[in-house]
């Protein structure tokens, strides 16, 4: 029923007060949402995909993409010069059973870490990226076990970066793939090139001096895609933390231009 005796001015004022309160509550909800959104994102731990990766177009479910706590899948590769790169920096052989649904990747370092796992198989452009804060990250292996990929555990190479990850001299710590925090083993580097190499020299400095400068091939040619394992035990100080600067310089069979990669390698003493 309409109250014909009501004052129109009072009704208008009451409506304005109600609407003002509603607007205020809506603004408060928006402000709280904006305030807490970064906190929720941090708690959830969004994956950080490498924007330089160009995912394959088909099949879409195998493409490199955000998968929650990690980015993983197949990508398209464009290679310049020899394609020389540091494929992995690990400590001890991978201890993964072919029946395990996943594995932990251990890395002894403080702060936030960037993990990269790639396939060492010839022309298989698989990659997994993740960031984590503790000393281990759980890495599901379901995608690697798909028949289209069928990546064996021994074909997985991992590296963990703790600083300057996008720079010319990233700081790396050794990764270890295992379900338990077992004894580590000797650290080693894995290099890989997409061109046959006719020249490969490594330089290692640390402890305030040059430790090694070696031509690894001599008159040999190293086949493209074949991983090059470089044990690092002889360059480390027994029982002490070590920090080495590593540089590899290579020349391809059909490319006369020299190519090089470098990194700072940190290894905790045992």
Specify Rg, calculated over alpha carbons: 27 Å
Give the strand content: 35-45%
How would a textbook summarize the main sheet? 11 strands, mixed
**Helix coverage percent of residues?**
10-25%
Distance between the termini: 86 Å
Number of helices: 1
| Overall geometry | globular
H and E order: HEEEEEEEEEEEEEEEEE
Q: pLDDT average, as an integer?
A: 84
Low-confidence blocks of residues = 1-46
* Number of β-strand runs: 17
Helix-strand category:
mainly beta
Short summary:
This protein is mainly beta and 270 residues long.
Main features:
270 residues, mainly beta, 3-stranded antiparallel sheet
Question: Topology, pairings included?
Answer:
Blueprint: H1 8-44, E1 54-55, E2 65-66, E3 71-76, E4 85-91, E5 102-106, E6 113-119, E7 126-132, E8 136-140, E9 156-163, E10 171-173, E11 176-178, E12 187-192, E13 197-206, E14 209-215, E15 228-231, E16 242-252, E17 258-267
Parallel strand pairs: 10-17
Antiparallel strand pairs: 1-3, 2-3, 3-7, 4-12, 5-8, 5-11, 6-7, 6-9, 9-10, 12-15, 13-14, 13-16, 16-17
Structural account:
The protein is mainly β and 270 residues long. Helices cover 14% and strands 38% of the residues. It contains 1 helix and 17 strands. It has one helix at 8-44; strands spanning 54-55, 65-66, 71-76, 85-91, 102-106, 113-119, 126-132, 136-140, 156-163, 171-173, 176-178, 187-192, 197-206, 209-215, 228-231, 242-252, 258-267. Strands 1, 2, 3, 6, 7, 9, 10, 13, 14, 16 and 17 form an 11-stranded mixed beta sheet that branches. Strands 4-12-15 form a 3-stranded antiparallel beta sheet, with no helix packed on it. It has a 3-stranded antiparallel beta sheet with strand order 8-5-11, with no helix packed on it. The radius of gyration is 27 Å and the shape is globular. The model is unreliable at 1-46 (pLDDT under 50).
């Amino acid at each position: 029923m309409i109250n014909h005796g009501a004052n129109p001015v009072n009704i208008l004022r009451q409506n304005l007060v109600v609407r003002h309160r509603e607007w205020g509550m809506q603004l408060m909800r928006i402000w709280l949402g904006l305030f807490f959104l970064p906190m929720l994102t941090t708690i959830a731990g969004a994956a950080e995909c490498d924007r330089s990766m160009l995912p394959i177009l088909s099949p879409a479910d195998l493409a490199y993409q955000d998968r929650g706590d990690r980015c993983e899948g197949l990508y398209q590769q464009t290679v310049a010069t020899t394609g020389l790169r540091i494929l992995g920096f690990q400590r001890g052989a991978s201890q993964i059973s072919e029946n395990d649904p996943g594995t932990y990747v251990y890395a002894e370092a403080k702060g936030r870490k960037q993990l990269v796992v790639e396939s060492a198989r010839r022309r298989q452009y698989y990659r997994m990226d993740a960031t984590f804060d503790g000393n281990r990250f759980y890495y599901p292996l379901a995608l690697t076990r798909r028949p289209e990929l069928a990546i064996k555990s021994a074909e997985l190479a991992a590296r963990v970066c703790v600083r300057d990850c996008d720079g010319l001299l990233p700081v790396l710590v050794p990764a270890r793939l295992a379900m338990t925090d077992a004894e580590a083993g000797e650290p080693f580097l894995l290099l890989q090139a997409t061109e046959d190499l006719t020249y490969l020299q490594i330089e290692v400095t640390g402890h305030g001096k040059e430790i090694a400068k070696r031509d690894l091939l001599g008159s040999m040619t190293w086949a493209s895609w074949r991983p090059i394992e470089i044990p690092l035990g002889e360059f480390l100080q027994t029982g002490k933390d070590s920090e080495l600067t590593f540089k590899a310089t290579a020349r391809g069979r059909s490319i006369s231009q020299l190519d090089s990669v470098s990194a700072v390698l940190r290894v905790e003493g045992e």
